[in-house]
Amino acid sequence: MKQILTSSELPVSPLYSHGVRTGNTIYLSGIAAFDPATKKVEAKTIEEQTERAIRNCESILKIAGATLEDVVQVIVLLKNPHDFDSMNKAYTRIFSKDQPARCVTKLGVDVPNILVSLMMTAVI
């Protein structure tokens, strides 16, 4: 049985769910830095977008009864690979200990204003 996770803080799409919980495992789609108030990408820098995207993921995890501490894997999708170091600055401020497994790759599509998108897997 699967539970579809949808955050009221993010724009919705008929093409995908923000997340899906099946059993004790939660899978999050590529989540970007949408501002919860405007549902637009307001952050301009990679550091700001990374932090906002992580916080957006956190809001979806909360719906499923999980926290960032339950995250076991993160896939980071970067628009510009040269943003790797700056993305890491924001990422390590939040995931400062017991870091999840992670990979970083290039974002495959050019979406206006989006510098980073995050996919997460959590187990509770």
Largest sheet: 6 strands, mixed
User: What spatial form do the alpha-carbon principal axes imply?
Assistant: globular
Estimated helix fraction:
10-25%
Number of continuous helical runs: 2
CATH architecture: 2-Layer Sandwich
Strand arrangement, major sheet:
1-2-3-6-4-5
Mean pLDDT: 96
**What is the CATH third-level topology name?**
60s Ribosomal Protein L30, Chain: A
Structural class: alpha+beta
The run of helices and strands is: EEEHEHEE
Question: Using DSSP, what is the number of strands?
Answer: 6
The amount of beta strand, in percent, is 25-35%
Question: Taking Cα atoms only, what radius of gyration do you get, to the nearest Å?
Answer: 13 Å
CATH superfamily: RutC-like
Q: What top-tier CATH class fits best? A: Alpha Beta
Quickly count the domains. Answer: 1
Which consecutive residue ranges, at least 5 long each, have pLDDT under 50? none
